[in-house]
Design brief:
There is one protein chain. The protein is built from nine helices and 16 strands. Strand 1 (146-154) and strand 2 (159-168) form a beta hairpin. It is an alpha+beta fold. 17% of the residues lie in helices and 28% in strands. Residues 143-265, 291-424 form the C2 domain. Residues 1-61, 98-140 are annotated as: Disordered. Residues 130-140 have a biased composition (Acidic residues).
Length: 435
């Protein structure tokens, strides 16, 4: 009933391959072998008698083009390319990273071919690294310049005279290849603005000549043993922030009283550290009191008018009470215990300064025998418009005082008609409840 029909099964196609078959033209051609069989055009009869059977030569390995380009041809580890900062250390983010190994190898090869000085150079570099000089190997003196100045300590008047003469070869800071330099002075440790003095600015020069004398008042012999004078050379920039060029530091303990010492020092880039704050913590309370400031007071008892003449000459290194880093100081004096209006005086207000100069005198009519029972209260205030004035510091002179305050009052009583001047440290003790 059913007829059987034969079915033809087709052969499945070959699996897909990325490589072409071996008989395509993409294979590398092989040269013909000289020992191959004779050409098919030669008739078999002309070939002569049959020779003994010779095994065919091994067929050479056939490599496709894709396999040829897939061969790993990497020559080895790739060394880092030297950066510009390897040749100019000042662009480094300190501490400096060592140079690439390839640079060191090149130096060694040069040393082998050179005159034998390579070992000396390596030894010198090793010594610099041990002494910590490698980080400052760039020639700072050449780039920053030198500063010439004089220092003189006048112990009798408690003054430090700083004469800034000139600078040479300063580093160019402006686009015209010049600079607008000035010099800033600070006494460390201490408040920066209270101890800051500065010279005038000279325009467009790398060799400025100032010949200016800046004076620090209220400097005692004790200060000369603990203070350090910092002189910074900066570039004035009206459109932006002033730029720091370099600085020098002088320990005042090396300066003798009455001797004018000349300095000619190379400017350096010293890291900005809080040296003043660290020393203030170590030395303790006296420095904390000194940060309130100092005041120069003169006392004179006039026997002809039977009056005490109090002179408020100047203040120095006052504490800053305003947000701009300065104060608007004035001085109040009160003779206790008399609380009348004649016992209270007030100086004028000096705007925006921490080193005001008053040179004002006030007289109290009091018998000499009653003066020993009196106490002179001196207080320094910061004037605030429309607000309560801020108390900066004060000092009391009288028979119950101690130290220089008692000595000053005693000399005024002893030497009638002689003006006696003393510097006194302002403290927060005995601050009035209101101004």
């Amino acid at each position: 009933l059913f007829s059987v029909v034969p079915m033809s099964v087709s052969k499945p196609p070959p699996p897909h391959s990325h490589f072409p078959p071996s008989n395509q033209s993409s294979l590398l051609p092989l040269p013909p072998s000289s020992s191959s069989s004779p050409s098919p055009s030669t008739p078999p009869s002309a070939a002569g008698p049959p020779s003994p059977a010779v095994p065919p030569p091994p067929s050479p390995v056939k490599i496709s083009m894709q396999e040829h380009f897939a061969i790993n041809v990497c020559p080895g580890p790739i060394l880092p390319i030297p950066q510009i900062s390897d040749f100019f250390p000042r662009f480094h983010d300190f501490p400096i990273t060592p140079l690439p190994p390839r640079e060191k190898q090149v130096l060694k090869d040069k040393d082998k071919d050179g005159d034998g000085n390579g070992e000396k150079d390596r030894k010198r570099e090793r010594e610099q690294e041990e002494n910590g000089e490698f980080a400052d190997s760039d020639d700072d003196d050449t780039y920053l310049g030198t500063l010439e100045f004089n220092l003189l300590f006048d112990q009798e008047n408690n003054c430090l005279h700083c004469t800034i003469h000139k600078a040479k070869g300063l580093k160019a800071m402006d686009s015209n290849g010049l600079a607008d330099p000035y010099v800033k002075l600070h006494l460390l440790p201490g408040a920066s603005k209270a101890n800051k003095l500065r010279t005038k600015t000279l325009k467009n020069t790398l060799n400025p000549v100032w010949n200016e004398t800046l004076i620090y008042h209220g400097i005692t012999a004790a200060d000369m043993t603990t203070k350090t004078l910092r002189l910074c050379v900066c570039d004035m920039d009206r459109l932006g922030r002033n730029e720091f060029i370099g600085e020098v530091r002088v320990a005042l303990k090396k300066l003798k009283e009455g001797e004018s010492k000349k300095y000619n020092m190379g400017l350096e880039r010293i890291a900005q550290t809080r040296e003043g704050n660290s020393q203030a913590v170590d030395t303790g309370a006296p420095v904390a009191e000194e940060e309130r400031g100092r005041i120069l007071v003169s006392l004179l008892y006039n026997t002809e008018k039977s009056s005490l003449v109090v002179g408020i000459i100047r203040c120095a290194h006052l504490a800053a009470m305003d947000s701009n880093g300065y104060s608007d100081p004035f001085v109040k004096i009160v003779l206790q215990p008399d609380m009348g209006k004649k016992s209270k005086y007030k100086t004028s207000v000096k705007k925006k300064t921490l080193n005001p100069e008053f040179n004002e005198e006030f007289a109290y009519e009091v018998p000499h025998d009653q003066l020993a029972k009196k106490t002179l209260e001196i207080s320094v205030w910061d004037y605030d418009l429309g607000m309560s004035n801020d108390f900066i510091g004060g000092v009391e002179l009288g028979i119950n005082a101690k130290g220089d305050r008692l000595k000053h009052w005693f000399e005024c009583l002893k030497y009638k008609g002689k003006k006696v001047e003393y510097w006194h440290t302002l403290t927060q003790q005995g601050a009035p409840s209101s101004d």
